Amino acid sequence: MPVALFNPAAPLEPLDAQLRAAVSDVLDRKQYVLGPEVHAFEDEFAAWHGAKHAVGVANGTEAITIALRALGVGPGDEVVVPSFTFYASAEAIPPTGATPVFCDVDPQTYLVTADSVKAALTPRTKAVVAVHLFGNVAPVDEIAALGVPVLEDAAQATGSRTTDGRFTGTLGAIGTFSFYPSKNLGAFGDGGAIVTSDDALADRVRSLRFHGSRDKVTYEEVGYNSRLDEIQAAILRVQLPHLQAWCSRRRQAGAWYVEAGLGEHVDLPVPAVGADPAWNLFVVAHDRADALRDALNAAGIGARDYYRQPVHEQQAMRPWPATVPLPGTAQAAARHLAIPMGAHLERRDVDEVVAAIADARLD
Ligand SMILES: Cc1ncc(COP(=O)(O)O)c(C=O)c1O
User: Fold this and answer.
1) With a 6 A CB cut-off, is 65 part of the ligand 1 pocket?
2) pTM, 2 dp
3) CATH superfamily of 243-360
4) Which residues, 6 or more positions from 176, have their beta carbon under 8 angstroms from its beta carbon?
5) Residue among 180, 183, 209, 224 whose CB has most ligand 1 atoms within 8 A, to mutate
């Protein structure tokens, strides 16, 4: 029986009528930009997180650029960012005028650590982008204790939390989210949000997403045209009440993989200390990751690598070569492999995947 790598459409099937009605309401209202749906979603998304403010933006990449700008990042500054992440985490930095400085990750958690960030700090460091990669939870408290503001890139971690009940995106100064369709909370197109409990940061973010204007007639600074649109907000509002249940299912699927003995065949992703991940991707590691991927795909099991070439090695990043050694990054890049994960997985799917990995006999 084939098992897909992910299947964002499956959990939405029972919501089909509601989703169509929500879109239809927007069409009837004919207000498409920064209207009641976006405002309501912002309030609901902030409340869901126990945060004071959420601001809808066009996507998770611009969310990072705008949040960095709100933190005061600009030309001459440095921003520390992991090299083992989706490219956008780093790509979002140069548009602020600042320089990305790549730091290492722990290849077991795939996350930055306080030590890896510390190694990359210089007197010019203005902020750290702590990526909650794959839904794992980066140690934001420890990084913030280094005395530098932390932007959490929670694009892959909507609904992940700490074991003491705080959600990703609320742990640092400011958090950014992506609603790309395959995320834990996905729109039917692009979308993003910025979450903060700091009034001044929220105010600046609201201005920056609308061309650097508070009143739409005077322009204080060069900003962005970066808004979540009404249709996407309406779609997200239908889904938000189900996010907690979907995250529980992701946690359950992760637990089933462990119970089913997956750890006998591959290295399991390790939740960081104090992390309760709502896995967006379940990423194992193996010395022969490509051979395992090919064997799984041949057996009808979704499996793929994401970041074989880490960000600092990408052509576009050549102006900013690595300044510290990145051995954890090299290891994670070479060995990682995503296997099926999502709210749609049943125990039998997980057993099927584990059996196919055992059958590949690569250990
Ligand atoms: C870690 C990470 N950061 C940032 C982004 C950018 O989000 P978007 O695609 O909404 O621009 C993504 C999206 O895949 C991501 O995975």
Assistant:
1) no
2) 0.98
3) Aspartate Aminotransferase, domain 1 (3.90.1150.10)
4) 60, 63, 64, 67, 151, 152, 153, 154, 155, 169, 192, 193, 194, 195
5) 180
Q: Are strands 192-196 and 174-178 parallel, antiparallel or unpaired?
A: antiparallel
Is residue 363 very low, low, confident or very high in pLDDT (cuts 50, 70, 90)?
low
Out of 1.20.1050.10, 3.40.50.2300, 2.30.42.10, 3.40.640.10, select the CATH number for domain 12-241: 3.40.640.10
Mean pLDDT of 37-46: 98
Cα 300 from Cα 321, distance rounded (Å): 39
In ligand 1, which atom is closest to the CA atom of 192?
A: 10
Measured CA to CA, the distance from residue 259 to residue 24 in angstroms comes to: 44
- In this prediction, residue 361 carries a pLDDT of 76
Residue of 156, 168, 177, 228 to mutate, ligand 1, most atoms within 8 A of C-beta: 156
> What percentage of the chain has pLDDT greater than the value 90?
99
Mean per-residue pLDDT for 53-66? 98
- Cα(170)–Cα(214) distance, rounded to whole angstroms? 25
pLDDT (tens digit, 9 = 90+) per residue, 190-228? 999 999 999 999 999 999 999 999 999 999 999 999 999
Smallest Cα–Cα separation from 55: which of 69, 41, 72? 41
Distance 155 CA to ligand 1 centre (A): 5
Written as one letter, the residue type at 184 is N
6 lines ligand 1 (CB under 6 A): no
